[in-house]
Amino acid sequence: MLFPALLTAATLTGLASAACSAETRLAGAKQVVYSYNLSGLGQSAAGFKEVPFGAPGAGGGCVTTLIADGTCPIPVATTGSGTYDFAVETRQVFSDVTGEYIDFADNGTTLINTNVTLGVRDIVGIPITFAGHVYIDHNDDCRIYQVRAYAEVPISVLGLAFSTAGVPPLPKPVCDSLPVKRGDEKEVEEPFRAIEYEV
Fold first, then answer.
1. Domains of the chain with CATH codes
2. Which residues contact 88 (CB under 8 A, 6 or more apart)?
3. pLDDT digits (tens, 9 = 90+) for 11-57
4. Could you say which residues form the signal peptide (predicted)?
5. Closest Cα to residue 196, out of 73, 83, 86, 79?
6. By CB atoms within 10 Å of each CB, which of 17, 32, 90, 111 scores lowest?
């Protein structure tokens, strides 16, 4: 709802072709959280359709990875449509998603700081919450070519703060590089490492 209106306005004023504005990037990030919290049948799926996953289009690249508590990044999608499918599927096990937003104008990245409470949609809450830091990378056409979700699992159980203090750390994982494409077919070597996977 909000995101398409901003994208249309940007297109009409010629901003979309020049560079992706912070206002448009933030609107897309807010649309993600908004869509996770919709409750009617099919509403979340429709909401996620408005997020510009994939560059140059939904069938294009959008490498989406999960990084839980410092482990290797786990790729969950490599295209925009795959990222959309992942969002729709995970919506089924989230009962509440919050969002605070930061935009990094110098590199086209938007950050969503979030707390996610597990549950069966918004019907049955499971009192386990984890904190997430979701980095959404945009190209100049405001298409999302990469999503990196860092999770601290969990931060609360039964409403009580959960701490890993005193728990011995896991051995450091051995991971491989994950190439990322921005939608213009240039590979960008990311500073983090990921598990090798077959596409």
1. 2-194 (3.10.450.50)
2. 44, 45, 48
3. 333 333 348 999 999 999 999 999 999 988 899 999 999 999 999 99
4. 1-18
5. 73
6. 17
Look-up of token digits 């190209």: 139
Contacts of 81 (CB under 8 A, 6+ apart): 53, 54, 58, 59
**What's the CA gap between 196 and 177, in Å, rounded?**
8
Cα–Cα nearest to 139, from 192, 196, 63, 73? 63
User: Contact at 8 Å (CB) between 25 and 146?
Assistant: no
Structure-block tokens of residue 162: 């959960």
- Between vectors from CA 109 to CA 105 and to CA 112, what angle results, nearest 5°? 115
Longest distance between any two alpha carbons in the chain, whole Å: 56
* Token representation of residue 190: 């990311």
Determine the length of the chain.
199
Looking at every residue in the chain, the average pLDDT score rounds to 79
Residue (of 66, 62, 41, 47) closest to 2 by Cα position: 47
Beta bridge partners of 146: 63, 137
